[in-house]
Structures
1.
Amino acid sequence: MGCQSSHPSAIPELEEIMEETGFSQASVVRLYDRFQALDKEQKGYLSKYDLQGIGELAVNPLGDRIINAFFKEGEELTDFRSFIRVLARFRPMEEGKSKETGRPEPMNSRQSKLQFAFQLYDQDSDGKISRDEMLQVLRLMVGIQVTDEQLACIAERTIQEADQDGDGAISFEEFAMSVEKLNIEQKMSLRLLK
Amino acid sequence: MSLEMRQVPLAEGLLALPAARAQEKSSGDHTAVSGPQSFQIVSFKWGHVQEPYIIALWILVASLAKIVFHLSHKVTRVVPESALLIVLGLLLGGIVWAADHIASFTLTPNVFFFYLLPPIVLDAGYFMPNKLFFGNLGTILLYAVIGTVWNAATTGLSLYGVYLSGIMGQLKIGLLDFLLFGSLIAAVDPVAVLAVFEEVHVNEVLFIIVFGESLLNDAVTVVLYNVFDSFVAMGADNVTGVDCVKGIVSFFVVSLGGTFVGIVFAFLLSLVTRFTKHVRIIEPGFVFVISYLSYLTAEMLSLSAILAITFCGVCCQKYVKANICDQSSTTVRYTMKMLAGGSETIIFMFLGISAVNPDIWTWNTAFILLTLVFISVYRVIGVVIQTWVLNHYRVVQLEIIDQVVMSYGGLRGAVAFALVALLNENKVKEKNLFVSTTIIVVFFTVIFQGLTIKPLVQWLKVKRSEQREPKLNEKLHGRAFDHILSAVEDISGQIGHNYLRDKWSNFDRKILSKVLMRRSAQKSRDQILNIFHELNLKDAISYVAEGERRGSLAFIRSSSTDNMVNVDFSTPRPSTVENSVSCLLRENASSVCLDMQALEQRRKSIRDTEDTVTHHTLQQYLYKPRQEHIHLYSRHEIIQNEDEKQDKEIFHRTMRKRLESFKSTKLGINHPKKLNKNHKRDRGQKRRTSNAIPNGKIPSENPVQDFTLKEKDVEFSDPEENYESLHTGKGVDFLANVTKQNCTDATSGIDNPVFSADDDQSIYMKFPPWLSDEDSVVPSQRARVQLPYSPNNFRRLTPFRLSNKSVDSFLLADGPEERPRAFLPETTHM
């Protein structure tokens, strides 16, 4: 495990990563250290088991779904580049105008934060949260004291509330609408990462 | 109630007693009852027992008073217990004084520092939520050091300034005296703060900050106090620059030295408990004796004793808890809570009693009022400035409401009083003025602020969340976002000082644990740490089977419930919806999660019962994200941690799911990807076909299970594991616990061959008829759905699948003797 802070030069593709994700060099270095600490066998990539080894995730109701979100469909491993790409969504947004005005859509936009959340719900990635998918998430997030019937009822109502085109499912737009009053920028940002 | 009873011995005792403690001189007078002439069958020897007798009586009175206070919940909910105790003390003091006209019982610094304070601080240290504490250590230190110095300096200087203007009249006081007074009145008091904060229920970060500050600022107080005390003694003219530098140096020596002493003794204590296997009976004694020794040692070396015993508790807790057996652990817990609670009660009562003494009262309106104003105002200013600085660095920002609570929660208490009582009258000419001012300040902060802080917090909370009521979607997704963020924080290691923590846990695992923990305890830890790397199929199944048979019944806990409002076992079952609302209100007031607000509103506008119920259900049962957890320390209660239950629940589910997917990948090890996909699809299908019966939810058809479940549940809510989660997280610790038991049972959980075909058979057979006849052995619904998956492993999987049955058979083996112990926390808790 990284005994000392890695030297920036030790990180592959540092420049590109900074360019792509908007992270500062210090953050990249920090995350790289973390990456290496998670990579217990110094493989150079992370497997799901590495992430599952984080104790806190085991008690996070959405833990496994989030772990899965770090891996591309069908892949078992992630390298640093993809790892940090996921994390980049959680970079706080710059207040006002920053240097990188040329970019159309930075990785940490509200949109992409929402997308990340949406894909956690939308397990079959058909672009919609179906009733079943909603139910699954609810089941994950609600204590076991609540019966299935109740949950089904809750899921139904939740979907009704957000569903605008009446197809019995929540599309991404509807999803974004339903939470438009929430302060996503703040709720989904890691404060320490700049 | 016991007034007369107490009065009789008191009145007699008082003749001989100048003070409760230091009265040996005259105690012999009474004993000359029996002469040499004849043998007396019965003799009355009051003098012989009077000292311990009176002490015991006082303790009894204080404890009885507590009972009386809690007879009426209305009173205790509004008025903090500490305030009630002070008032009681005033009354009792008045009675004693009326009877005798001598203030015979006061809180002497000696008793306070040697006997009453250590249990409280040890309790705080031993049950300190370590992760939280070290995570916020920087903040705590800033408040404790800079904040206290700031308070002391500004209060002292401002008072001096006003004094120069002449408002206070003529006092025999110099600048140094003011600074001395400032330094002793500056420190926020751990006893008072805890007593009030515990009842106010603030969020955990805020709690740990104020609590930690009050503990750690002791070093500053002690140093400032000593420095100014000796400066006063030397006289203002003789103080040189060198002395000031010495003062600053002594701060570092005192604080670091105190901490060091604490750590050394913690090490010693952990080491000793490693070898107490054969002397289980006195095991708990070591914890107390060695901790107390750390306190005395630091005191002897004139280091910060509070720091010493705090850190002794903080550092040893992990190892001690791993080393001592469960019974000892329970004993330690209860004894510690008892001692701390008792000390606190006595302290507040005696604060009241001590105030009834005309000799110490010197009234100076300007001085007293200005002191009150200054300490409040400077506290606010200090908090605001420091928070402003801190918020630039903190992950979890301290908001305005937090700052208000923090400023307002700066209670002063018995430490200040004891310090002021220690002053030398010959050197500090206005000692009596200081004493009376301190008493007023303490009473004001404890009673007035203590009374008002709760309404204040609630009012502020109400203010904040009155704007709009969230929709279902927002509520659900908002919660999901919180979970996502905390998960990502965990992955990216952004919370706290992770690099240091990683290093530390490495060091801890490699060296410290090896030295300080029993081998059995170590083993289970190590196994757990590498859990998901070395996992192979067999291990996995046995793990989960173990987990299942020990705790997973929690999953089927409430399947029998019928109505819309389910309640778990820990809360009284409300009969109506309305009822449950108030119950919820009460409970939710305990966290800063503001949810209570939403509930309140909802109650006002019951427009749609179903909707209300839906909201309630979500409100109550949505898992809480980490930040909203209630603080983990309570002096008066052995906490049955809700969070822990939640964590366990989630942990079970997670493990199950992981195993399922793990199995599927392992089975088809040649084509992991493909199979995994298949599996996913399978699972998806299964979900649909089985009408989305979620993982970890086994519909039970067996009422008997409910019984065993409760039992297991109780066993698992053993709060012992609460604080152990230094680096593995609670869930993993739970597993550790399971395996630990395995190891000590010498069945060695990992390579357990229990799951061979024969054993399955025997488990099957052993399954007691009285349990099985209600429900013939039908695999649970989930099992039926899933068994076809792995036909090859049918045998292996049976224990896993049937384990909600096999629990019972396992239980039979060790159930009976576990039961009484398991119920202990529940019953005594009441």
2.
Amino acid sequence: MSAAEAVEANGAQEKILNIENVSLSFGGVKAIRDVSFDVMKGEIRAIIGPNGAGKTSMLNVINGFYHPQEGSITYKGETRQDMRPYIAASQGIARTFQNVALFRGMSTLDNIMTGRSLKMNSNLFWHLWRWGPAENEELDHREFVEHIIGFLEIEAIRKTPVGRLPYGLQKRVELGRALAMEPDLLLLDEPMAGMNLEEKEDMSRFVLDVSAQFGTTIALIEHDMGVVMDLSDRVVVLDYGQKIADGTPDEVRKDQNVIDAYLGETH
Amino acid sequence: MLYREAGQFKTNYRADQAVFPIRQDFIGIAALLAVLFLVVPFTFNDYWLNAIMIPTMIFALAAIGLNILTGYAGQLSLGTGGFMGVGAYACYKLVTIFPEVNVLIHILLSGFFAAGVGFLFGLPSLRIKGFYLAVATLASQFFLEWAFGRVAWLYNYNPSGAIEVPNQYLFGVAIAGAPASSVTRYIIVLTIVVALALIASNLVRGRFGRAWMAVRDMDIAAELIGIRLLPTKLLAFSISSYYAGVAGALMVFMWLGAAEVESFDINHSFLILFMVIIGGLGSILGSFLGAAFIWNLPILLRAMPKYFGADINAATVEHVQFMIVGGLIIFFLIVEPNGLARLWSIAKEKLRRWPFPY
């Protein structure tokens, strides 16, 4: 039973995120036009579409990096015109990036520890001596981070600088960094891009495990249709910045607009 | 065989996160400190202490400061010389206003004035990055140089425009000014530098250090993780300037004995930046290596002909020295762009596996 079905079975469909009539443009370029969709608590929601459809822009709007000109974003019952990165992060929105955006000079461990930034608040004075509260806090969070390292099976590379890791592992560390924030809503921007079949299977398993074990709501962008159809509870399809379909994987697969967008149509 | 962590098991995270998780490192540093504190003061003569040990330590401190800002937080700065000057002039004013307070306290306090100035000049860093920020810090350098030369209050209206260190005593021992022995000044400098270096290493290993490095490596990702860019950068500017300020105060009070505007000019900013780059960006150890390398190489080269008995006139030695130093800097940057600290860590890694190649 998937998470969404579990929620439906309880009879309480709770929207964690609701995007309403959002439009975003850069000068003359309209990246997103009047798009609305919602994300239910606990589900895995996929955003798909051809290149340049506005998927990544949509994620950037959700975590406050872009500010839409029109529309509203309702997150956890609070409606805003736009998000701010700091508010998004402190309210539990984490994300990974299409091109791995790890801190290349730092080790795997430090990268994931950085994900705990918002949970750490010991002050500068103690950190000067690395004593008392500062050290205890470091140790507590180290323990939490070690759980994530264990979960993602990356124990062997915890002290390796991430710049030296192969691409597939970097993606996994990036997922670890996002998980370290204990997010309520996890945004994954092409988590399987550029991976081989085995790595994709691993990553798919991690995504499902995150959803099942931590109950995290996940919104993901992915181009591999097999992965999308298998993983997600519901799919929203964008094309040229507009929403052209929204529904379960089966509904979307049969949708004529979607087929046209992907296979092309004669205009 | 000598350097290997095999068999050193960590059973808790505290031990794993120690400054020197490998026992040999700890023993090595302890031995080095013992030599610096117990052997050097009694064996080195005044020339060695004054021309080599004291300036190396002081420049290493300034380099640590700049390394925090440029190496860890990724904010390029050309204002170090000016910030050192703020520390020196602040210390001078504090000593004249509160002569009864010990100069050592003034030296440590003067860093806070530099930190304040660094904070102010760090404000543009929210909007400006990279080379453009370097130009903004260059503006701070020129402004501060102007202030040191023109604001007569700063040098107590001394007609020569210089600041001079009054004689200072602690428990009857001269610690600053003409009567202070080089051994005393060396011990003071060494103690302060070692303590501040330890604090810097604590800071960069904790959450503040990670925030700095996150901003350096990928500021967008850092922001989306919940790291606020401006406070993080401003903290780096303040702490970096504190270190530069204390280094500047030490430079005047524990080494030169007197100073004027030229002691804190743009050349010093470049000198410290070279030390950081040669030593290794983002490494406390590298700051020491870089300072030792850049400061002592010319001295070594100048002394060379004398040891070989060659009779070359001083001007030629000077020219050759410039060429060799320049050449060596380029050589090192090609061989190891990440600096001496990286060479050192590669050597350690090789030693760990020795005698096997990998």
